[in-house]
Amino acid sequence: MPLPPDFDQVRSEAWSLVRDTMGYLTRREAHFLTLAAAVAPARGAILEIGSFKGRSTVGLAYVARHYGLGKVVAVDPHTSPSLTDPDLRGAASSWDAFCASVRRAGVEDVVESHRTVSTELARTWNEPVRLLWIDGDHTYPGAKADLEAFRPHLVDGSIVALHDALRDFGGPTRVFVEEILRSDDYGPAGVCGSIAWAQYRPTDGGEPRFREARKRLEKRMAPLVPLVRDDRKLSGARKLYFKLRRAMVPRGEVDPDRFARELELAS
Q1: CA distances in angstroms from 133 to 9, 81, 129, 161, listed in the order given
Q2: What pairing do the DSSP bridges indicate for beta strands 45-49 and 72-75?
Q3: In the structure, what pLDDT confidence band is assigned to residue 81 with cuts at 50, 70 and 90?
């Protein structure tokens, strides 16, 4: 769908709420997420896997309400079952902080929360997904399970985005390279900050223009996979090499008009 004429203002308003919410999403990444939510040319839900204290939830919910996109479905057990989860610093759960965040931002009415893991929610899920935001368990089995659980519910034009794909977690990087960039089910793809994203386009993802662009990006990102495969914290020469290889991956701010045009589906 075309870029809404008021998007710059809406993005700025959403960021003002995100900025005041605890979490790890950068300004660049928040801008990208709100853009993806606003222009994804697919019907269905905005699904967030991994909410923590609601930083991305707030931005997505603000955009969803403004443009009438329905509710943001946020799934997170709000405990720490994985070694890659954010540190709760002695707290038993992030649930109270999450609820306070969405309440403070005034978006409670457009957030549907599920205190469980994504694979459990997927058992009863029966609607299409227009934006699949994966920011939960960052191990490879965890990130892969998140994608596999909801991939059957993607529709032509849906966007899949994985957080922390350029950080020292094995899951998002490996899943993006092996399950998405190497698949003709996806068309346009890129990286913004540490968010790796691709558009689900099973009807034309195999066209040379898409396949060749994905292969170029894969060539830049594939060397990172063996460095983060075992989810160990990087250090020393290995960490330096990771940074050098990461610097070769284009990950700058996304131009909204160009992005919206890139996502347009064939009529």
Answers
A1: 23, 19, 10, 5
A2: parallel
A3: low
Cβ neighbours for 116, distance < 8 A, ≥ 6 positions apart: 75, 77
**pLDDT over threshold 90, residue 83:** no
Q: Whole-angstrom Cα distance, residue 32 to residue 193? A: 9
Calculate the alpha carbon distances from 193 to 33, 165, 183 in Å: 11, 9, 23
Residue-level pLDDT at 88: 66
Task: Specify whether the CB–CB gap between 12 and 68 falls below 8 A.
Answer: no
- Asked whether the beta carbons of 98 and 52 are under 8 A apart, the reply is yes
Q: What is the strand order of the sheet 186-192 is part of?
A: 111-114, 72-75, 45-49, 129-134, 154-162, 195-200, 186-192
Name the strand (E) or helix (H) holding 49: strand 45-49
Tokens in use for 160?
A: 């899949």
First to last CA, the chain: 12
Residue 45 pLDDT exceeds 80? yes
Quick one: CATH architecture of 7-262?
A: 3-Layer(aba) Sandwich (3.40)
CA-wise closest residue to 215 among 203, 224, 206 = 206
Give mean pLDDT, residues 97-101: 96
Domain boundaries defined on the chain? 7-262
Alpha helices per DSSP H over 151-265: 170-175, 208-221, 225-228, 236-246, 256-262
